[in-house]
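Task: sequence in, structure out. Protein: Vesicle-trafficking protein SEC22b.
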Amino acid sequence: MVLMTMIGRVADGLPLAASVHNDLRDESGRNSNEYQNQAKNILRRINSSSPSKASIETDPYVFHCLIDHDVCYITLCEKIFPRKNAYAYLEDLAQEFIAQYGQKIQLAARPYSFIEFDNYIQKMKKQYADTRTSREAMGRLRTDLRDVQNIMVTNIQDVMSRGETLQDLNRKATNLASMSQQYRKDANYLNRMSSLTKIGLTVGSIVILSLIAYVFIF
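Result:
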């Protein structure tokens, strides 16, 4: 389920539009205002070099972020809400937002200049609450968004407490992935060498036994 949505300008983190579930409150007592502040912090920590897609966990929910045409689209969802559906939802918002305000985005001077876009957000939230509609939307999902398994996933504490940008976090995730890939390559190489060694020992043993048998027989 989509719980909250915020749209902001990448250049300066200015919120342009938002839609909030007013009854939002988790078991720890955090309410919609706290999650809005988290979303604003995410906006302040993105830049033109940030990954175009990222998921940020904030138990018991998760933020999904999409950057398109220098605009960042953020939605807060329940963790059980499929990630593909979340990005399909953001993609729909991005297409409509650019269609309506593309020429005005860089001219906006005050927060929530396009707050009337909430009407469209509410419409999309209802559609994506309908399983059948969300499946249809998946068919329209852009090719580069279909593989959501490779989307960077981090934790809200990494974004807020340490003040790291999504670019920094993405670079660390990429480095870890590279190290993991190299580890797998090294492990495969060692396995191959071990197999070759075993084969060599087996062949050597057969040759030696054959020579011994030859000596005794002939």
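The two ends are 84 Å apart (CA to CA).
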